[in-house]
Amino acid sequence: MAHSKALLVLENFIGGKFVPCSSYIDSYNPSTGDVYCRVPDSGKEEVEAAVKSAKAAFPIWSSKSPLERSQILNKLADLIEHDLEAFAQAESKDQGKTIMFARTVDIPRAVYNFRFFASSIFHHTTECTEMATMGCVHYTSRAPVGVAGLISPWNLPLYLLTWKIAPAIACGNAVVAKPSEMTSVTAWMMCKLLEKAGVPHGVVNVVFGTGTKAGEALVCHPDVPLISFTGSTLTAQRITEKSAPHCKRLSLELGGKNPAIIFDDADLTQCIPTTLRSSFANQGEICLCTSRIFVQRGIYSEFLKRFVAEAKKWKVGNPSDPTVDMGALISKEHLEKVRSYVKKAQAEGARVLCGEGVDSLALPTGNQKGYFMLPTVIAEVKDESCCMQEEIFGPVTCVVAFDTEEEAIERANSVKYGLAATVWSSNVGRVHRVAQRLQAGLVWTNCWLVRDLNLPFGGMKASGIGREGAKDSYEFFTEVKTITIKH
C-alpha cells in the first residue's frame, strides 16, 4: 500500500548486521490508528540465516567465562539506560502504553533484567554426593544448550524480550529472538547497541515477523533445541504440537484469569488503589492483571461504590501526556474483542457500572482514531459467564460478592487458568491458609506485582509450563550432566 509520509523501516539483525527483507508488513501507532512503521515479514529463509549465524557464534560465546559474559551484559544495560528516554518514547508510541509506564516500568525493568542475570550467573552451585563404600564421588555440571529460540509478546515488548535474552546469553547460549510484529521497534533499537556492548556477532539475532511465518519457522527448526515463549495459551498449544517431533525443551508463560479475594477485614485504603492498578495498569494488558474481584458480602456495597468512583477518575488519552493513567489498546481488532466481552456481559444481564458504553470518552483531536477504552467495571456477573472464564486482556474487571472463605477459594479456582492471585485480609493465618489453596503460580497478599527475580515466575494449569527466575532460567537454559568418579 502507498503511504503519504516517510515511515520507519526496520530490518532483521542477523550475524551482527542489519539485513533487509523481501517483504514487509505495516505496524500501527495505537494512539492514532496510523501506520508509522514497516516491519520485516520474515519466514523460513530469514530464520535459517539467523540460526546458522547463532550456531556459528555459539562455540566462542559459550567458551567465554561467566565474568566476561557478565561484563558484556552490564555494558548493554548501561547503554540502554543511557538512552532510556528514547526507548521509553518508542515503546509508548509502538505499544500504546503511557509514556509514564514505559519510562518507569518497561525500560527500567529491561535494564535490570540484564544487570540481574549478569550478577546471578555467579551464584549458582552444582551438586556433589559421595558413596564411600563404593569409592565413588558423583557431581553435576551444567553447560549451555546451544541456540535458544525466544518468542516474546506485544504487551511489555522490551521488558519481556530481555527477560529471555539476558538469562539465555548469560548462560552461554546464542539466541534467535522473534518479538511481536506489532511491537518491534525497541528490539530493533537494542540491536543497534549490541556491538558497542561487546556482544560478538551472531550471539543475538533478531528476526521480525508474524507468528505463523517467522515464529513457526523458528519453532520447527531442527537446530533450535529449546523454545521460550510468552503469549496466548492457544499459540502455546500450536508450539507444543509443532515442536513435539523434535522433543524440544519448552518454557511457556501464558494467560491468566487472575482473582483478587477481598475479605471484610481488608484495609480498603490500600486495597482499592492497588486493585485499581492491578486491574487497569497498562490498559489491563498484563498477564498478571486482576480480572475477577471477589468481595466478602459485608463490605461488597462499600467496596463497589468506592472502587467505581475511583475508576471513573482514571484519565484515558494521548499516551505522551504524563498526566494520563491509561493509553491505547494494541490494535483495532483487540479493542473490538475487548468491547465484545462487555456486550456479552450486558446480554447476560450483568451491570456495567462505569466505562465502556456507560461513560463518554473525550479524546484529543489527534487521537480520535486511536484504540482507546475507559476502565470498565462489571457487576452481577455469573461465574460461568465468558467474562469470568476467559482472558479478556483489557481494562475490564468483574466484581462479585462471596460469603465464606471456602466459597471464595472454590470460585477463584473454577477457571482453566492458574497464573496469579491476590488476597486482601489483616488475618495472617487466613492469608497463609488461602494462599496455600489457591491454584496459582504467584499469590500476592495485601499487595500486587511485588517481584523478587530470584524466585520462580510462572503459572499452573493452562497458564503455562515451567518457571522463569534466577535458578529456574539457569536450569532451563543449561543442560545438566552427572559425572561419577571412582577412586
SSE layout:
Blueprint: E1 8-9, E2 12-14, E3 17-19, E4 24-29, E5 34-40, H1 44-63, H2 66-82, H3 84-95, H4 99-120, E6 128-131, E7 136-144, E8 147-151, H5 157-170, E9 174-178, H6 185-197, E10 204-206, H7 211-220, E11 226-230, H8 233-243, E12 249-253, E13 258-262, H9 268-280, E14 290-296, H10 297-311, H11 332-347, E15 351-354, E16 376-379, H12 386-389, E17 396-402, H13 405-412, E18 417-418, E19 420-424, H14 428-437, E20 442-445, E21 460-461, E22 464-465, H15 470-476, E23 478-486
Parallel strand pairs: 1-5, 8-9, 8-11, 9-10, 11-12, 13-14, 13-19, 14-17, 16-17, 19-20
Antiparallel strand pairs: 2-3, 4-5, 6-7, 7-23, 12-22, 15-16, 18-21
Helix pairs in contact: 1-7, 2-4, 2-6, 3-4, 4-5, 9-10
Low-pLDDT sequence parts: none
The share of residues in extended strands comes to 15-25%
Largest sheet: 7 strands, mixed
In total, the number of strands is: 23
Share of helix among residues?
Answer: 25-40%
The computed structural class is: alpha/beta
Task: Please give the radius of gyration in angstroms.
Answer: 23 Å
Average pLDDT score: 97
Strand order of the largest sheet: 15-16-17-14-13-19-20
Determine the number of helices (DSSP H or I, runs of at least 4 residues): 15
Separation of the first and last Cα atoms: 73 Å
